[in-house]
Predict the 3D structure of the following.
Amino acid sequence: MKISIIGTGYVGLVSGTCFAETGVYVSCVDIDEKKIKNLIKGKIPIYEPGLETMLLRNFEKERLFFTTSIKESIQDSEVVFIAVGTPPDEDGSADLQHVLKVATEIGKHISEYLLIATKSTVPVGTAEKIKEAIEKELKIRGKNIEFDVASNPEFLKEGDAIKDFLHPERIVIGVESERAEKLMRKLYKPFLLNNHPILFMDIRSSEMTKYVANAMLATKISFMNDVANLCERIGADVNLVRRGIGSDSRIGNKFIYPGAGYGGSCFPKDVQALIRTADENDYPLEVLKAVENVNNRQKSVLFDKLYKYYQGDLKGKTIAIWGLSFKPRTDDMREAPSLVIIEKLLQEGAKIQAYDPVAMKEAEQRLGNTIAYASDQYDALLDADALMLVTEWSEFRLPNFKVIKKLLRKAVIFDGRNIYDAEEMEEHGFDYFAIGRNQFNQMV
């Protein structure tokens, strides 16, 4: 079976590589000639554990191909996935210009029946716009060629994308014909053999499912962050509260860890897009608006603690930051809490020494020479007035606290992910501040 995937960003590259791993012949398309040349050389533009090895293996076995030509790619393909970016517009809605441009190109070059499926996260009704764009081009050409559209949203977690794709909790597919459903069943047959659930539904419900899934997870995070901030003020420990509610099977223990706010390419964008869709349909989603507001505020919480600790005087202070990516196991800094914290620190005249296991190159591209980049986590601590842990990379979980205390100018840690034990920090002689613990009134 041959398929095409248009767009070699995070979703397209992971999806194409994983489909090839199941034995499918995959042609990946991108208009960026430099990116395609690098992919042919085995250089991938993103960091995702396990992806590079799998990509090289399938490229060498000639199951995975890279090209800049949509016309060339869709020839003999049975399914074409659209996996281009849908960045947010200024009003929060998803920008569909790249998706519709691809649909137009498909309409110009389609020569026989084809199933066009969206992998990109798109608003409800996008499949209909794709269909209209293709039909418009066919009319211009004077051709009457059958095709179907479908929706097949991705549910990949950065850092675990390979596992999520090959061993999914569910596969959601929206179709409007038996022919399209039959093709998608054929493509996903390896997953059926492994008993991974495939949920077929109408296209609009499929498009909605993706947004609601991310919005629900974002809601859990913001709710727990809100609760954590209240816990500080009333003398409760959110870690204990979290365990108490997480043992309830109706709630579960995932996505209820308080921290410095969520970021990344999905949650912020998808929450905004769903809010915009609701507003356009005269039904404001008040809960989601609160989710977004809480998250925006939460990104400043760690800075606020530091600001209060130093009584509003951060000028000339050197702050060590551990973790720059929005989450561990990725170099993605889109909407990362670290960016908000760094901006506020710089505005107050502080100096920053930062370290991240994989996001240093990305940080340099975003921040330039406004901060200092450490060679390792301990180098970032040298003569710093405080340590701020922003991203919970595994290598930060069990550091040498004696070395930390020796390198820091002042023994104080601001833990934005609650990965350290407060009693242990006290034993080591640190002033220690986390999220959602009874510390609000304990600062100097």
